[in-house]
Amino acid sequence: MITDIAAWLLDPSNWTGDEGVLRQAWLHLLYCLFAVCAAALFAVPLGLYIGHTGRGSVFVVGFSNAMRALPTLGLVTGLAVLFRGSVALAALVVLAFPAVLSGTYAGVRAVPSQAVDAAKGMGMTSKQRLWQVELPNALTLLMGGVRNAMLQVMATTAVAAYVGLGGLGQLLIEGQTIGRYDQMASAAILIALLAVLVDLALAGLTWLLVPRGVTLTAANTGARPRGRRKQR
Amino acid sequence: MIEFRSVRKQYDDGTVAVQELSLTVPVGTITVLVGPSGCGKTTLLRMVNRMIEPSSGTVLVDGDDVRDSDPAGLRRGIGYVIQQAGLFPHRTVRDNVATVPRLFGHSRRDARRRAEGLLERVGLPAELRKRYPVQLSGGQQQRVGVARALAADPPVLLMDEPFSAVDPVVREGLQDELLRLQGELGKTVLFVTHDIDEAVKLGENVAVLRQGGYLAQYAPPEQLLAEPADDFVTSFVGRDRGYRRLSFVDSDGLVPGPVDTVRIGDTSADVPSQAEWVLVLDPHDRPRGWLPPGAPIHGQLTEDQLIAGGSLHTSGAPLRGALDAALSAPSGLGVVVDEDGVHLGVVTARQVLDILESRRHPAVTEGAVQ
User: Which UniProt keywords are given for this protein, alphabetically ordered (chain A) (predicted)?
Assistant: First the structure.
C-alpha cells in the first residue's frame, strides 16, 4: 500500500495538468485564503467592537455555538444547488467567521484590565485605546482564531470539492469513483500536508505580528492566554 | 487645588458609594484618603479625572468644574497611577512613559528623551529602559508607573493604592522615593490607601473614610493620632497610635550621653574596664554592634564576637527613632548617629520619656531633662 502511494506521489504526470496536484493544491489554498480573509474582514472589526465596548458579548458566545452546530456540508451543497458552484465558497466564509470572531473578542477581553484603565486614565480616547492598547495585546488570541478558522476551512474545502469546485478534495473523490485507493490516500496525505504548511506559515505570521513584550508576558505568566491575568 | 463639593455617588442598584461629602485638597501637598474597603475612597479619587461621574455635587480642579472639560483632555492634564502600575505589556519601559507626550503630539524623539529624563528622576537604572514591563520587578514597574504619570508634568497627581501590591521593604523604598520627588516637584497629590501607616507617613492631611462613604475625620496625621474624632477612627488608627505619634514629635533637647567604645581589630588591652556594655565601631566610627559586660576577647576583636546592635537614631530625627533605638538595643542604650552614620553618643528610653513628660509639664520637671 505504502509503495502504491509513493508510486502515485512520485509519478510526475499526477502533478501537472488541469487536474494535477499542483493546480488542485493551488485552488485549495486559494479558496481557503479567500474564505478566511473574507471572514476576517467582517469578524475582526465586529470582535474588536464587541470586545472594546462590551456590548453584545452574549451574542458572540451564542452565535459561535449556533454556528458550530450548523451542518457546513449541507450549507455548501445547498448554496451550490441553489446558485452556482462558486457561491458555495460563501459557506466556507460562514464557517471561518465564528472562530475569528471569538478569537478577536477573547483577545480584547484578555487585555490586562489595569492597562486599559491606565490608558483611559492618562487621557486616551476610545479609539486610541483600541488601536494603541487593546489591538496589539489582543493579537495572540486573534491570530489563534485565524489559525483555527484556517484548519476548519482546509478540512471542509476537501469535502466541499464534490460540488465541483476543485481543490485537493477533487482527487480524493475522483479516486473513490474510479476505485484508485492509492490516489485517495495520496490526496488525503497532501491535504494534511497543506494544512500543516499553512498553519506553520500562520504561526510565523503570528510571531511577526505579536509585539515582543506581549510574547514575553505570555511566556512569563505560564502562557495562559484565556481569561484575564490573575490579580495578586 | 482639588475641591469636592457635596459629592454623592449612588449606583443604579441603589448602593451608595459616597455620601454628601465635601473636602478640599490644598495645592502642593499630599492628601491621603484612607479607609477600609467599601468606604468609597477610590470612587472619590476617580471622580477627579471623571473615570466616575458623581450622582450629585461638584468636583473642582483649580477652580474649574471637571464637567466643563472633555474627559480625555482633562485626564491628559492629570497624572494617574494605579495598583500594579498598569503598564502596557507591548511597549518598552521607555515607550510606556513616552505614551503621554505622544498623546500631546510630541515627536517620538522628543517623547523618548522626556521619558528617559523621567525614568532617571524616579531612579530606574538606565539599562532597564528598553526592557518590557514583564521583565521588571513589581517595585520597578511602579517606578515606571510614577514616571509615566509625571510625563506631562501635570500639577495634579492621582494615586490609587499604587504601592499595595509590592512587598513591605520595596514599599517603604517607594514611599521614601515619593516623598523625595514631592519635595522636588510640589505636586498636588491625592493618594488612596487602606494602610494607615502609609497614610500617616505620606499625608500632610489624611481623610479617614468609613464604610458607606462617610468622612470620619480630616486632619493632619499627628492630630489624627493624638485626637481621633470617634471610636471608628480610634480603632482604625490602631492600638499603638501613641507610639506612632512620636513620628511627629521632634527630638529637641535630647542630648546623647557618652559610652565606652572600641574598634574592630582592637585587642583586649585596648578595651576599657568592661564593667558596662561597650559599643563597637568600625574604622569610620560607624556602630557595628555591642560587647556585653565582662565578655572575654581573644586576640583581635572581630565582627563575630559582637552582639548585633539595635536600630539607629539619626540626630535631629523625630523621637520615635530615638525610643526605638533604645528599646531595640541589647544594652538598652539607643545609638545616636549623624547623617553619615557616625556615632555621636547614646540615649536611654528614660531620657525620651523625660522629654515627653517635660513638654507636658514644662515647669515641674525642667531639671530632669538635663
Answer: Membrane, Transmembrane, Transmembrane helix, Transport
Query: Count of CB atoms within 10 A of residue B105's CB?
Result: 8
pLDDT tens digits along A91-145: 888 889 999 999 999 999 999 999 999 999 999 999 999 999 999 999 999 999 9
Report d(CA A187, CA A25) in Å as an integer: 10
Q: Report residue B306 as a C-alpha cell.
A: 559582637
Q: How far apart are CA A173 and CA B116, in angstroms?
A: 65
All three cell numbers of B319, joined, read: 523621637
Confirm whether A226 is domain-assigned. no
**Per-window interface: B 119-178 vs A, CB < 8 A:** 132-135, 145, 148-149, 158, 165
Structural domain includes residue A106: yes
Closest CA to B335 of B317, B353, B322: B322
Count of the separate structural domains present in chain A: 1
Q: Indicate where chain B has its CATH 3.10.580.10 domain(s).
A: 261-361
CATH number of the domain at A119, please: 1.10.3720.10
Q: Which residues pair with B314 in a beta bridge?
A: B337
Taking only the tens place, the pLDDT of each residue in A147-170 is 999 999 998 888 877 777 788 888
- The cell for B297 is 576577647
Flag whether residue B190 sits within 8 Å of chain A, measured between CB atoms. no
Rounded CA-CA distance A46/B71 in Å is 26
Nearest chain B Cα to A216, which residue? B134
Whether residue A231 is contained in a domain is answered as no
From-to residues of CATH 3.40.50.300 in chain B: 2-248
Looking at domain B2-248, its CATH class is alpha beta
Chain A residues within an 8 Å CB radius of B88:
115, 118-119, 132-133, 137, 213
Tell me how many residue pairs between chain A and chain B have CB atoms under 8 A apart.
89
Asked if B264 contacts B280 with a C-beta cutoff of 8 angstroms, the reply is yes
CATH classification (class only), B261-361: alpha beta
Question: Domain range holding A120?
Answer: 2-220
